[in-house]
Amino acid sequence: MPQLGLLPRRTWVTLLSQLLRPPRAACIPAVDCHSQVAEALLTSQPKPHQEKPNFIIKIPKGTRDLSPQQMVVREKILDMVVSCFKRHGAKGLDTPAFELTEMLTEKYEEHSGLMYDLKDQGGELLSLRYDLTVPFARYLAMNKLKKMKRYQVGKVWRRESPTIVQGRYREFCQCDFDIAGHFDPMIPDAECLKIMCEVLSGLQLGDFLIKVNDRRIVDGMFAVCGVPESKFRAICASMDKLDKMSWRDVRHEMVAKKGLAPEVADQIGEYIQCHGGVSLIEQLFQDPRLSQNKQALEGLGDLKLLFEYLTLFGIAEKICFDLSLARGMDYYTGVIYEAVLLQTPAQAGEEPLNVGSVAAGGRYDELVATFDPKGHKVPCVGLSIGIERIFYIVEQRMKNSFKKVRTTETQVFVATPQKNFLRERLKLIAELWDAGIKAEMLYKNNPKLLTQLHYCENTGIPLVVIIGEQEQKEGVIKLRSVASREEVAIKRENLVAEIQKRLSES
Known about the structure:
- Helix content is 42%, strand content 17%.
- It is an alpha+beta fold.
- It has two domains: 68-343 and 354-400, Bira Bifunctional Protein, Domain 2 (BirA Bifunctional Protein, domain 2, 2-Layer Sandwich), CATH 3.30.930.10; 412-505, Anticodon-binding domain (Rossmann fold), CATH 3.40.50.800.
- Helix 15 (422-434) links the parallel strand 13 (412-415) and strand 14.
- The longest helix has 21 residues, at 24-44.
- It is an enzyme of class 6 (ligase).
């Protein structure tokens, strides 16, 4: 037997490797683990010649970013609307951005195809909310509430073709006001119309008209014209498009797409041309066909009472009874209404803005019961302000007027004309913040005074406080008006009181 030292080199290496190798069962996981780590490291490293994916940075169709200038205008509009809701005693409410799909699809029927469904992640089929009304009804039923006056501001989503030029988006904000509970007829309804008038008048959008109708009158009209009851909701959804389509196109949809007899559509066409006030209501009470329908008579009776209350509120001249109004949502049961701008004032050389309805709503007495296991009814009536369309109008006007919009509410700027005064500026601005004063300063150790003053002029900050060596020695602070450029010396201990006084007077 040859000695180990005399073995060939290759044989010696093989023997050593076999002696040092761990058992096979223990070795395999280690190899797998190392190979996985190596693979992860290799895939995470950028390839030498790998190019960046070719894509366009954009937002989804039917959505938009809002700039700081746009946000200022938007917040002012929302503040005005919400303050009106609060003036009428409404409480704030918020609900989830998505709901169970099954809770939404049955409530919209004709519009369920426009909902955004979410991928199942956790055993629940969900959809983004289509409006704020159905979630409110669900909230009432879930919490067993029989009475509530609420407002809500939030985004909703609809998968439809956006018309940006008219302020129509797939993602948009709604501002809702609703009154839930059993009350005497038409009193809450009249208040909703009063609120609508207050909001539109306050926003100064120009002259407007609120169309009113009643779903019982609409259903009665369909019945006496010969529309099969099974087609009521579908034909109502078509009729709701009259603000976007001509009667000829709507009639074609009713006949060609929804199977309505042409002569029935023609009879509907005769009714929807009627619009007016109390005199029209009296006329329809005498209509030989409509007067024979119980539902229509109930609707006409409530509308007559409604106009009495609207007269007492002083807004009857803003309301028009219009038989062409349908409101396509399936949950409406009684009075319905929709506000339109008669003419958006335009400057010379501008095209008039056409944005359709800017507010709408109605009565939905059956919706809460659909969520309640025992079917308990909670009558509701409400309205929704079309904030996106209103915002579009205001935004276009501001563009045309070249009006500058302040994007911050800063009241005072802390400045210095000299170097090495950062610590003094920090002490001073902290004192202003602690007093509730909105203040700013430049984030630089030694900014130039001219740069600081230009910043105030460009951003519209009204006041500047200036601290330097001389002011520090004398125990004063210079207070400068940006508009007039006048400066006065104020004792350091009196500075906050002087600023607050000036701000209260401005």
